[in-house]
Write a structure and sequence with these properties.
This protein is 72% helix and 0% strand.
Length: 228
């Protein structure tokens, strides 16, 4: 692929529509992920902190990607002639990360775990480069700062209800990803916050959270489409 414009990594906040624009929100998440991956691989990381850092990475990776697939990539397919090709490639990268992290999560004691984590980080870094150099500059070309900020708010709303763990069977595109991903996102967040809750409490909370999350996703996606 050939970049159509300057990478968002080389532009300041004003050029990207302001601190609350989707482009700045994406760049901040990417920088945070990069720092956490470096920390996870650091030889100075205390053994007891490795699992905590890994969990933080997983939660951010999957909530971030789900919001992209729900809000950003449908917009890109509408405004860019090569949006279908570009988003298909990034969706394949997301699926590869999903599959690999699911394997890591299923096999905590496997001697290959450290190598699998390095492979996952390489995939995530490639995904970040493709997004910042190829996909996101096209959104900057298509939308003014005000629209980029509105899209950013919609993306943030979806991310707040998104899955935080790998679910390889969830589709990569709307509406299938929302129909299957939103209830899973509610359940993921219950496990993140209250892993010791009993099954009855989890089921009740899941039902309530799923309804609220579904409503938030619908409103956010409608908002993004209106301003596309």
């Amino acid at each position: 692929m050939t970049a159509p414009a300057v990478s968002i990594s080389e532009q300041d906040a004003d050029a990207l529509g302001g601190d609350d624009s989707i482009l700045m929100r994406q760049r901040r998440d990417h920088a945070r992920l990069d720092a956490m991956m470096n920390r996870c691989l650091s030889e100075d990381l205390p053994p007891g902190e490795l699992d905590a850092v890994w969990t933080d990475i997983v939660q951010l990776v999957f909530s971030h990607a789900f919001a992209e697939e729900t809000v950003l990539w449908p917009l890109l397919r509408r405004v860019s002639p090569d949006g279908e090709e570009l988003t298909r490639q990034v969706e394949a990268e997301h699926q590869a990360v999903n599959d690999l992290v699911a394997r890591i999560e299923r096999s905590p004691d496997d001697p290959r775990r450290a190598e699998w984590i390095r492979q996952a980080f390489a995939l995530i870094r490639q995904d970040i480069r493709d997004e910042e150099d190829e996909l996101l500059p096209r959104l900057r070309t298509a939308f003014d700062g005000r629209k980029l900020r509105r899209v950013g708010a919609a993306w943030e709303a979806v991310r707040a209800t998104a899955p935080t763990r790998p679910h390889p069977g969830v589709p990569r595109r709307p509406p299938g990803n929302a129909l299957r991903g939103v209830p899973l996102g509610a359940f993921d967040r219950l496990r993140d916050l209250a892993p010791g809750s009993g099954p009855a409490a989890r089921r009740a909370s899941l039902a309530a959270a799923g309804v609220a999350a579904g409503g938030a996703v619908v409103l956010a996606v409608r908002s993004a489409r209106r301003h596309g």
